[in-house]
Amino acid sequence: MEEHKYTEIAPGIWGLKIVFVNIYMIATGPEEWILVDAGVRGSAGRIKKMADELFGEDNPPAAIVLTHGHFDHIGALHELLKTWKVQVYAHQQEIPYLTGHTSYPPADPTVGGGMMSAMSFLYPNSPINLGTRVHALAKGGTLPHMPDWQYIHTPGHTPGHISLFRGRDKVLIAGDAFVTTQAESAYNVLTNKKQISGPPKYFTPNWVSAALSVRKLKDLRPAVAATGHGPTMRGEELSTQLERLVVDFAEIAIPKHGRYVNDAHPARLNNVILGTVVALSAVLAFTIVRTLKSKQLY
User: Fold this and answer.
1) Are residues 168 and 288 in the same domain?
2) Distance CA 209, CA 220 (A)
3) 99 with 108: CB under 8 angstroms?
4) Are residues 131 and 74 in the same domain?
5) Which of 18, 82, 230, 277 is the most buried (most CB within 10 A)?
């Protein structure tokens, strides 16, 4: 995604890179649209300018949806909400970080080996307080004002991280569940060098959940992936690299050392994934048998 200029990701979806993070705008009806994430502090003017050009002046979004509440995804919220009288939505498990109650775990500047990681001890991890302007998303994956979309709970990077999926054309807005550049490298992030990666290492505290979330997104077979950091990826390139990320997640994504890696040892990771698959299979089998019995077919 080109810096300073928004680009069309797919029909009715536009993205803008702001310094090192992406925000997205989605048309959801005649003159109605949704903002996904809110960039870094100081970016409200650029977001409003993009909205004016795409949807007309004095036409605020119907809602703002957050993939999660890290500082680089909520930075312009307070400024935007001064003039946009709209509601903000996030996953229930993300609400404590958006209402002033809970801080995120501190960054780990020892992982990743790049300048973005080395500087991460400076990144804010304290909560913001949106008060009554923020609401928990409904259970079941529905999104306000977005009937063609569903959200998928993709924890790991944060407890309430979500990704957005439009089933009719398989467009995925992944947030930071996985990214398409090496988020730990300042050079790669600023130049938008394309490279599928796991979530940013320095701010991901739960690698077992992160691995399961990437697998969940891969199983959707997305045709287009727009992420929180990096350029849009699509087609065979996306499917091939996403498959490799799932298969080699421990090698590609998980740091070799660090504050949050003890529970993500490859053997434990494989056991957790296998256990999850077995458990889901058992639930499915039980459901099928119960359904057949209820219909007197078994």
Assistant:
1) no
2) 17
3) no
4) yes
5) 230
